[in-house]
Design a protein that fits this description.
disordered N terminus, about 20% helix, about 270 residues, single chain, alpha+beta, seven-stranded antiparallel β-sheet
């Protein structure tokens, strides 16, 4: 009995460390919305930039008729994506009061659910513990879900945007169409070697579904639109063993695994 219990505990612990949590992509709002006839969705992109990468959160409200005709949220949620070199990778989704937080620390992205992204690969894996500084940042009242964004405008098939230090005049290719609905603005978040542009509703009363979500990437040479529907099927690869020593707790993790193995062997000998 003790042998089986020890073996089960070891396997369960290793499984916890190696398996990335699965998140359901089915939601009230998304590529296949499940809504009542009187409800609609409003999406808000929030972009948190790193060096030449970013985490993009698509926050959504499912709204229906409320008191005195004012739309009232029936459910809220988020989709999370990692952006790097023009590519999108799906990180998961949350609904209700759940929400992931993420902090760039020592060249690694730490996520509040116990994962870390190495931008150099890029790759992802579970971590045993988050660094103390990261935990404090995530719990701080000053925590921000996005980087500062700036206005952008379209004139004569070109996009103009500036953050005060860097300015871009971006030519829109003939095969790309950018439609900006009423009560929606074009904004930009600057990276070290380019800029992300996105559409954002001015308020939650503006119907702005998944099909309206627009984020574009300009790398300094060309402009193209990111495909979030396709990205739902794209995941970051798991980091290999050498990543263990690149975050605090790696040595402790190895020690705990060794202790569990010793406990299991002792139980097996009895």
């Amino acid at each position: 009995m003790y042998k089986k219990a020890a073996l089960g505990f070891v396997l369960l612990f290793l499984l916890f460390l190696t398996v990335t949590p699965a998140y359901a992509t089915e939601a009230l709002c998304g590529p296949n919305p499940v809504l009542a006839p009187t409800e609609y969705c409003t999406f808000y992109p929030f972009i948190k930039a790193g060096e030449d990468d970013a985490i993009i959160m698509l926050s959504w409200d499912a709204l229906g008729p409320g008191m005195q005709g004012i739309p009232t949220p029936s459910m809220v949620g988020e989709y999370y994506f990692y952006f790097k070199d023009g590519m999108l990778y799906y990180l998961g989704s949350t609904t209700g009061l759940e929400e992931l937080r993420y902090v760039l620390h020592d060249n690694l992205w730490y996520i509040s659910d116990g994962r870390a992204i190495n931008p150099k690969k890029p790759c992802i894996r579970r971590v045993l513990m988050l660094p103390l500084g990261v935990t404090r940042s995530m719990r701080s009242r000053k925590y921000l879900i996005s980087s500062e964004d700036y206005p952008a405008r379209i004139n004569d098939s070109k996009i103009y945007t500036s953050n005060g230090s860097v300015s871009y005049v971006i030519k829109i290719p003939s095969n790309l169409s950018i439609n900006i609905p009423d009560n929606v603005t074009l904004r930009s978040v600057f990276l070290h070697g380019g800029v992300l542009l996105f559409l954002r509703p001015e308020n939650s009363f503006v119907p702005f579904g998944w099909e309206n979500v627009t984020v574009l990437y300009y790398d300094g040479n060309s402009l193209h639109m990111l495909n979030f529907t396709r990205a739902l099927g794209s995941k970051l690869p798991t980091c290999q063993g050498e990543f263990l020593n690149s975050y605090p707790g790696g040595i402790l993790l190895i020690g705990i695994i060794l202790i569990l193995i010793v406990v299991y062997r002792k139980a097996k000998m009895k």
